[in-house]
Fold this protein.
Amino acid sequence: MKKERVRKWKLSNIGEFLRNSLMAILKGEFLLRLNVGRYLIHIIYTFVLFTLVIWVSFMIDNTMVKVENNKKTLEDLKAANLQKTYEYVSLTRRSTVGRTLEMMGSEVREASRPAKVLE
Amino acid sequence: MSNDRNVKKKKRDRVGVVLYTGYLLFLLATMVLIAKLVWIQVGYKPDPKIKDALTPQVTTEDLDPLRGNIVDCKGRILAMSCPIYEIHMDCTVRKSEFANAKREKLSTAKDQNERDRIIAHYDSLEQKWLTKARALSAELTKVYPEKTADEFYRLIRDGRENNRKYVKLGEPVDRNTYKLMLGFPLFDEGSNKGGLIVKERYVRRYPYGELARRTIGFVRNNTDAEVTNNHVGIEGKFDYVLHGRTGHESFRTTDAFKKIHDNDSSYVQPRDGQDVHLTLDVDFQELADKALRTQLDSDRVVNETCLVLMEVRTGAIKAMVNLKRNPKTGAFEETQNVAIGHKAEPGSVFKTVTLMSVLNDKYIKDLDTTLPATNGKIEGTSIPADIHIPDFARQHGTNRISVIDGFKISSNYVYGTLAVKYYTKHADKFFDHIYEYKLGDAFDFDLDGLAKPTIPARETEGRYKGSWTPTTLGSVGYGYATEETPLHILTFYNAIANKGKSMKPYLVESLGDGGNGSSKRGPSVLNSSICSPAVADTLNRALLAVTSDGTAKWSLRGVKCNVAGKTGTSFGTFPKDERGASAYEDKSGRRKYQGTFVGYFPAECPKYSVICSIYTDPVGHSSAHQGGGIPAKAVKMLIDGIFNIDPSLAETVSRVEKDEQR
């Protein structure tokens, strides 16, 4: 029966670990030694997600800027509508209508007799 | 052996070397990046100004709601909010830009010629800007004609020299003018190059001008200590409906320094104010305004006046004109609500109250009941004799006068006698009637400021505190010693037209836009029966007698439908030191007339009731300012105008009859 060897960590082992890690980094084998090759696609996917989120945030900000610009346009149109409404209503005053008709040469005047309602 | 080594060297390919070199470069860049990140997080302290500029700011702004409209009974807008634009100018735009650029270029100039060229170039830029400013001044004078083009140019040039960044160019303008100004020289280059600064705000505008302005009212937003009432009219009373709710929105700055909505902060949507729908009809309002102003056209004595039209069946006020003379200009303006705020002795229009009381209590059977017509003195009182009674007796060859004749000639003797004769021992009963007829209290009304009538009362007995004598009772009987507002008198006469049912006058039909959030107000009853229909018919006969054969006969002659009504003339009192023979005339014998005509039409089937009251400055004897003068004439003009345009008063003809006529 083989006895299981219990590895005891010494200070020199840490140094060796660091040296091996550095060499692996320099050789470009660090991730391979950690056996993360099978997760490479996940890492790449994560980075793609990060990129997408950042890109979508930019797009959202740009869209929000358009929303604010459209709000300003809407406010301007509301103001224009109010101004037009005021001008239009001012023209419906009875005496104003009479004056306008007279100015335009119309013979229509205020009623001098009541209308007859046909049953 | 050496061949093996050469083969091994050849197997080490170039692609591998290039990739490995690229990998090393990326590795180096990563190391630098990590070191930089650690340094920024731990050691770096940025310039505070740069830090503030680059830190996204979250700002909160208030979102003002749009104030609701006030509309008439047919939905026509009487008051609305419109934008106006305050135009200012930053006169220093580009000044520092030119100066800094010039300084920079001069510092690198090689010789004097180059320096001269640089100075000439930037001076010409400054001159071009000033030339555009001169062109702008020429355009501005078309918008603000009170200043010449030279004055505007001096204003801009001096502002530029004195570094003034906020120069007011003129009064706020409407949107059309603002859009026009955006095309002016300099202004068309924007605020950074042209210096245009615009501030938009909303103000209240009235499409129908001065019509019903006092009824519509206003809200003052100042804190002037001299002004005590900042909420006037419908605008003031219903400010809580019209105002709406202010909202709040937070904004943050994007990386491109644009401002956008911040979703992480709270957002309160503003709620626009609701509309207030009035019972007024602006066509009737214009007719009433024109009728009153036409009668006052050449008058110099009338100080205040009002004309109110009410719908009999509901109490809805269809027109309310309040005019007060401006002491400086002499023109009549809607600055005070005379109809509800001015209480005065009503005069002869109050005789109908006495007549209704004696009829209700069955002290007289009908209008043909007679009283002695001798000297016109009311027994038991110190009231001066009515001089019309001996004249009546002489003209008619009789020594008796009927109640209806007394009503027609508006005799103080007849109605003072009725009050004294039947109510001396039961004065409480008479005053109870006055309160039943809603002439003693200020009821809840859609406008603030309805004055409480003044009714004299007895000190010791009954519910009333004060002091009265038979003289006072007699005075009350013909319309003195009490104070009523025109609206109270109109409400009383409206009840007669409505067969005894007293409706509360109201101005506001509903609140809101007709949707789920709207609330309907409407007719309400003050007193379901102040008199029986029979008594109302009797009074109607008396009132018809006044307009057909009495004090209003001449003024209402030719009116387009039958009108039942009463004239009333009373006089204002003078301070003690100005009095002449009595409290009602000054030392020159002049009097302050208070003329009233009140009635309803068509008399056969009343649809509208109307009152017109005028109040004059001291004047000598004037029949024009009595109730049968200006007030009755204004009412006639109004009735004729309404009759022409109101289809409900029009004659109905059957189609068969019309075809036969052809």
